[in-house]
Every structure is written in C-alpha cells, then in structure tokens.
Amino acid sequence: MARLTANFFKQDALVLAPLLLGKKLVRVSDNGVKNEYVITEVEIYRGEEDLACHASKGRTQRTQVMYNSGGVLYVYLVYGMYWMLNIVTGEENNPQAILIRALEGTTGPGRVGKLLMLDKSFNTENLSDSKRIWLEDRPIIDTYKTSIRIGIDYASEEWRLKPWRFYY
DNA sequence: GTAACGATCCTC
DNA sequence: AGGATCGTTACA
Fold it and tell me: Which of A9, A20, A93, A146 could bridge A70 with an S-S bond, Cβ 3.0-4.6 Å?
C-alpha cells in the first residue's frame, strides 16, 4: 500500500495515535536489506502544557524538532543506552510527537530502537521521502486498548493519568 | 563548569 | 531491587 506522507502526519496526535496501530513500518538497512514491521503500541506526548512531554521545557536544541509540522522523526537517547523512536505530528509550532513503544513481536521502546538500528542521525528524518525508514498504509485497527503512559512518574497527576498509551 | 536525571532494560 | 551509561538540562 501507499507510503504515508505529510498530510497524514499533520493531524493532531490525539487523532493519529489510534490510526498508527497496525500500520506498516519499513526499514532499509545500510546493506540494502528491507524489513517490514507492524506498529502495535504507541504513546502521545502533546504540547508544552503536557508535563510528561519534553516540549514542556519549551523550544530547546533537543525539542525544536517537535515544533516542525508532522511527518519527521524525533529520535533521542534515553538512559545513555536506548534510542527512542517518535513521530512528530500536528501543525507547525504545535510541539507534539507519538512514541513508538512496540512493533509486532517486540516489547518496549528501547528494543524498537535496537531492532531498527536507530541512532542520532535519524533525528529530523523525513518520513515522506526517506530512503531508509517510512510508514505504509494498512487497514484501521478498530479494537484497541488504552492506559496511562509508562515511565513518566515525574509528571504531575493531571498529566500522569492521561490515557495516552494505545495498544492492541 | 558541574551535577542530577531520565518517555529503559537486564541481571540478581 | 539495583546497575549500566551518556546527552540534556538547570543552576552556580
């Protein structure tokens, strides 16, 4: 099916998160091998008001990528070891991103980054025209679950309790 | 400068 | 329950 491009990712994260479930993630490695995965778990990080979102610190060298219009990647290192894969979503200057927490057959965002062999060079990568990573359309998953987000105990209750984790 | 802390995972 | 491991942020 067709590659998903900027118009799709420009939608608000609240709309996009459930739509990303079941979508195909394609990764072409340096040696030219193409692998395809299915997205099974995501989390929303949305706006400067969201105290769990890195953009709550405002526009910094790290967070500026989230201020782009949707369709680019926000990839960063956490705990000195794990590359987190996020898709920037929404309108320009409205910082939000969706964390890919799991692909079919994997558990945990750290393992996603390892499986996809991500590194710093993937930060700001454009999903609309990248030759090494992109998403392709797939039928909607209409039965899914939600829960609070994982690993954000530092956020205040208002944001910690948002049901912004989606999985099936 | 310098210190504290993670959107995690593995091992004990 | 605790350690690995380093970029980002905050504060002096």
Answer: A9
Instruction: State the pLDDT confidence band at A1, using cuts at 50, 70 and 90.
Output: confident
Average pLDDT over residues A26-54: 97
Q: Classify residue A1: in a domain, yes or no.
A: no
Q: Which residue has the tokens 């956020």?
A: A155
First-to-final CA distance of chain A: 21
Say how many CA atoms lie within 13 Å of A35 toward its Cβ.
Answer: 12
Domain boundaries, position A43 = 6-167
Per the structure, the count of domains in chain A is 1
A93 pLDDT exceeds 90? Answer: yes
Query: Is the CB atom of residue A62 positioned under 7 angstroms from any atom of strand C?
Result: yes
* CA–CA distance, A4 with A57 (Å, rounded to integer): 30
pTM, entire model: 0.97
Tokens of A67: 């201020």
Residue A139's CATH number: 3.10.300.10
Residue A76 approaches strand C within 7 Å at CB = yes
Q: How far does the CA of A154 sit from the C1' of C6, in Å?
A: 20
